[in-house]
Amino acid sequence: MNKSQIDNESVGQIEELLRTIRPEPGENYRQRMGLAPWIGSLNAENKNQGRKYGFAAAATALLIIAVFILATPAGSVFANEVLRFFSRAGGDALPAPTELISTPAPTNTPEPQYGLGLVPAEHVVRPTPTTTPTMVGAPQESALTEAEAAAGFNLYEPLRLPRDYNLVRVSYDEIRQGVYMEYKSPRAGTNEFFYIFQGRNLEPFEIGASAKTETVQIGDYSAEIVRGSWFTPAGSIEQIWVNTPETYFLRWQAADVYIEMGFLFNETFMPAYLTRDEILTLASELVRCPSTEIDTCDGSHVIPGRQPTPPEVDDRAAYLSVAEVESLAGFDILEPGLLPEALFFSHARFSPSGKFVWLDYGDFAGDLMHFRGPTLRISQLVRQSASSISSGDYPPEAVENVVVNGYPGIITFGRLFTNAATPGQPTPSPIWQAETGDIAVKWMTETMVYFISFTPGYPGSERLSKQNLIRIAESLH
Question: What is the pTM for the complete model shown?
Answer without folding.
Answer: 0.53
